[in-house]
């Protein structure tokens, strides 16, 4: 009983923090189902009828751009995972002049704020004639994300038992076979972590697409959200519905990948 009484303030504090965290999401969902007059007369609560047509109107306006963002974010993930896994494997498996210097240079890229290289990055993409293209939205974030991904994967690869790789060497396996058949299968948690981090970064990237695109053909959904409009009756409910629709892929990703993500994040903390 005493333990329960002692724990009560802690649970109470957690409950308050949880309520404060979830309340904005509650308001977002409730407001997305209202027309303007309903929001005026009943701002905080649920108001009937629920106007699901806000969602259909919003989806018609941002649906194509969701496909653009899925393509851009997925390609960034594939590129980052491929580049960083190969780079990390080379740091762990091979000795060559300047290896430590190269790794320090890669780590230093993590210290550079993205805004600092925004203008040079724009000029480079402009010179390569990649403005307003998918490539222009993919390659710079891919290069930026590969630095941290290489660090995370190198740390994880170093924890793989060397006896497994030595046994594969003795059996005559080449580096490609060791990498594909041993290292990659054992590294799925960290690969999932890197994939999720970079997918979220690509999906939520606002500044770079705003700078690098100016047309609707390759515009990501995060830019399209600002252009959602409804009629006078619908008000901001349509725009809020668009925000919810655009977040659904991220929610699905969270549901599917929570377990491997947590496993990858915590893997470095339990190494002996």
UniProtKB/TrEMBL annotation:
Q: What membrane topology is annotated for this entry?
A: Multi-pass membrane protein
Q: Tell me, what's a Pfam family for it? A: BPD_transp_1
ABC transmembrane type-1 domain residues are 66-257
| Protein transport among keywords | no
Tell me which Gene3D superfamilies the record gives: MetI-like
The residues that cross the membrane are 7-29, 65-89, 101-118, 138-157, 178-201, 240-262
Q: What is this protein called?
A: Carbohydrate ABC transporter permease
What is the species of this protein?
Answer: Cohnella endophytica
| Lineage start | Bacteria, Bacillati, Bacillota, Bacilli, Bacillales
């Amino acid at each position: 009983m005493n333990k329960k009484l002692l724990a009560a303030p802690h649970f109470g504090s957690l409950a308050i923090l949880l309520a404060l965290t979830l309340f904005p999401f509650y308001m977002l969902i409730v407001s997305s189902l209202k027309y303007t007059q309903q929001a005026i007369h009943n701002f905080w609560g649920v108001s009937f009828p629920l106007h699901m047509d806000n969602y259909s109107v919003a989806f018609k306006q941002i649906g194509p751009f969701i496909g653009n963002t899925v393509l851009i974010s997925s390609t960034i993930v594939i590129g980052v995972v491929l580049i960083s896994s190969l780079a990390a494997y080379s740091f762990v498996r091979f000795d060559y002049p300047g290896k430590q210097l190269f790794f320090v240079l890669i780590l230093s890229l993590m210290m550079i704020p993205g805004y600092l290289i925004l203008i040079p990055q724009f000029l480079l993409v402009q010179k390569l004639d990649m403005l307003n293209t998918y490539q222009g939205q993919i390659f710079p974030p891919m290069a930026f994300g590969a630095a941290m991904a290489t660090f995370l994967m190198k740390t994880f690869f170093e924890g793989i038992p060397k006896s497994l790789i030595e046994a594969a060497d003795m059996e005559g396996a080449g580096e490609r076979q060791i990498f594909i058949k041993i290292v990659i299968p054992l590294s799925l948690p960290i690969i999932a972590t890197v994939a999720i981090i970079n997918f979220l970064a690509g999906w939520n990237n606002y500044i770079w697409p705003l700078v690098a695109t100016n047309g609707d053909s390759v515009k990501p959904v995060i830019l399209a959200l600002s252009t959602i409009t409804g009629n006078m009756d619908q008000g901001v409910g349509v725009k809020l519905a668009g925000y919810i629709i655009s977040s659904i892929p991220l929610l699905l990703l969270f549901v599917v990948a929570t377990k491997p993500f947590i496993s990858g994040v915590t893997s470095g903390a339990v190494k002996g």
